[in-house]
Amino acid sequence: MGLTNDPNYKKLEQWYKSNAGGLNMRQMFDADKERFSKFSLNLETDDGDILLDYSKNLINEEVLKMLFDMARSIGVETARDQMFAGEKINFTEGRAVLHIALRNRANTPIMVDGKDVMPEVNRVLKKMKDFCHRVRSGEWKGFSGKTITDVVNIGIGGSDLGPLMVTEALKPYSKGGPNVWFVSNIDGTHMAKTLAQLNAETTLFIIASKTFTTQETITNAESAKEWFLQTANDPSAVAKHFVALSTNAVSLTLISPCWVGGRYSLWSAIGLSIALHIGFENFEQLLAGAHWMDKHFCSAPLEQNAPVLLALLGVWYVNFFQAETHALLPYDQYMHRFAAYFQQGDMESNGKYISKSGTRVNYHTGPIVWGEPGTNGQHAFYQLIHQVWNINSYDQWGVELGKQLAKKIEPELQDDSEIHSHDSSTNGLISFFKKNRA
């Protein structure tokens, strides 16, 4: 049964036609002083709390119930459990979908075709750990006896976007590690500009490709090798400066399992550039954080399940409000590559128009994902988002109002007093910040 034929989808459709015009954000907050507590989720981890505030969405309790009912009736829980059980839910290739195994820090058995995959996962992690130690300690040396100071990751798609995003996000943890560079574009300018800043004697190249058939990656790898040999003048020196990562098990240093999609591969051997940059101990912490969220997704009831809540809000907006783009606007500069990374995770995963049954879908499977760091966006495109068409193109008053609101909130962040001067969501966010700031 297709999504739009599901009885609960039809209920949502009818409710939207009859009631969506009455969903006024200001009125909903004024009418319910507890809206923030009802429509937010606090996830308590060993390393601090994660707050999901979804109260500023055009929903009420009736809409949420219908969304959860729809999730159950179309089999979200069943599909989730099949994935964690190692069933071959990637039916087009006949494969399991087990990126969760890569970060399974509990080391519980995960079975595929009657075989536990965890021993192989742990073997690769051990090999990554040993290699990282040798490079970061200076034991691994280049052809001229010098230690490695720079690592160039050559890949594209999942072999570039994830590692690049994470190394940028975790730069504060990179002390003692080599500089990391990323080359993805087959346009020679990308490689040439990078190599111009490097010394062949102290540079290590990581060639990251699932199959070693990706034209962009192979072309860039050949260019890097040619550049390197201009200095080394010895083909045997290549072994000390080039490492290969792939799902192809032929003569490669590290293998990324075939049951891991490229867009999830940063958790696999493809994440070697991350581990080299921040250290393997910190890479293990990254895996542990992802494992915590995997456990939450696997065990939490739908009503308290953060990934499910966000997914259902996405369905609500794109299919009912026809909101066909989704902006990701991180305000932390370290997260400046997150939108580009998540574009692939969302749009490549959901960018399909043929259903599992082979029929063309008659609904949106996902939005266009885009974004920039939030502060930059405020001075670029926020005005269109906030006010849309038919306004004075030079609306300085709106800009000034934002500054006035910010000036009011700034002093409220300075002490530990409880805040009551805003809507319940803004009050709750300020309180959360003050409670959890370092």
UniProtKB/TrEMBL annotation:
Its EC number is 5.3.1.9. The keyword Protein transport does not apply. InterPro entries: G6P_Isomerase, G6P_Isomerase_C, SIS_dom_sf, SIS_PGI_1, SIS_PGI_2. Pfam families: PGI. GO terms for molecular function: carbohydrate derivative binding; glucose-6-phosphate isomerase activity; monosaccharide binding. It is an enzyme of class 5 (isomerase). Pathway: Carbohydrate degradation; glycolysis; D-glyceraldehyde 3-phosphate and glycerone phosphate from D-glucose: step 2/4. CDD domains: SIS_PGI_1, SIS_PGI_2. Signal peptide: none annotated. Keywords: Gluconeogenesis, Glycolysis, Isomerase. One of its GO terms (biological process) is glucose 6-phosphate metabolic process. It catalyses: alpha-D-glucose 6-phosphate = beta-D-fructose 6-phosphate. The keyword Acyltransferase does not apply. One of its GO terms (cellular component) is cytosol. Belongs to the GPI family. This is Glucose-6-phosphate isomerase.
